Amino acid sequence: AQSVTQLGSHVSVSEGALVLLRCNYSSSVPPYLFWYVQYPNQGLQLLLKYTSAATLVKGINGFEAEFKKSETSFHLTKPSAHMSDAAEYFCAVSKGNTGFQKLVFGTGTRLLVSP
Amino acid sequence: DVKVTQSSRYLVKRTGEKVFLECVQDMDHENMFWYRQDPGLGLRLIYFSYDVKMKEKGDIPEGYSVSREKKERFSLILESASTNQTSMYLCASSPIRTSGLDRRNTIYFGEGSWLTVV
Question: Is the pLDDT of residue B95 over 90?
Answer without folding.
Answer: no
